[in-house]
Specification:
Oligomer: homodimer
Helix content of chain A: 10-25%
Largest interface: A-B, 56 and 56 residues
Chain lengths: 178, 178
Amino acid sequence: MARRSFPLSRVYGLLEPGPVILLTTAGKDRANVMPQSWHMMVEFEPPMIACIVSDRNFTFDILKATRECVVNIPTVELAKKVVACGNCSGREVDKFETFGLTPLAAAHVRAPLIAECYANLECKVVDTRGVNRYGLFVLEVVKAWIDPAKKNPRTIHHRGNGAFMVAGRTVKLPSRMK
Amino acid sequence: MARRSFPLSRVYGLLEPGPVILLTTAGKDRANVMPQSWHMMVEFEPPMIACIVSDRNFTFDILKATRECVVNIPTVELAKKVVACGNCSGREVDKFETFGLTPLAAAHVRAPLIAECYANLECKVVDTRGVNRYGLFVLEVVKAWIDPAKKNPRTIHHRGNGAFMVAGRTVKLPSRMK
């Protein structure tokens, strides 16, 4: 089934639960994939995300230079590939090819969407003031996609040292919070 | 069972999965409690956390003035109280009293720990440069506590509009990531 456009106003609900994300960037020679858990929402609409990328990561220089990326959200079926992407560097390896991930062209950025992920957020870097001190990039989501074929997506949530919590059941409570 | 000191080096593993937190602050007249999902790790050790607090929240002025807070992590048993804390303002209500939460004295900050939460992180505000633009506070965790009586704590993860994902099972993978 084809990927569907997802309303920007609802993006926060994808990231607030704290899933591991796969950050894709378009380097000169190849696209890269970096698993990441240090991210948070900053604004509802337009949706803005803060994330930390260490300058030790291959992604850092590409993100700083291109000011574009895609935040891809994997489900538990992809957990082994997520870990494999974290266990090596894009300096040495083409992760798409090595781990059998499928790049799809994005609409507004050069970084690719990962076809195997259930959601993809095309992002522009809008604020780099926190980069030198913390590696903190502020991103604006300019386009969001969802794979409607993936029902009940079970995200994974990093607990450290290879332990991942798999998203459990959802409860509904009478909250007035957005 | 008494609360136990928790190693600062392991704090990131509590927050990386993205749980809802209860931010406590010590105002002039009363302590306040604010549920929050917009937070991320910024540094492993000393553990540093970024979080967003809107200037519409009662907590904002207290946090800015006192530069201290506690990040408390509730489990699913507390979900109804978490939602209740989000549905009203500390301007009108003493949330500890109204919702039957138990304040405990912290070791290094005036803001109280919440006894019912399974983990409590005493924090100092160390960077307010992102406050005007985003409500972004950077916190340093100066002391961490855990309740060893709470085995297998099931955190809750906000999906928006009163929907919360309850932490599911944990899988272990051969990751070289910290």
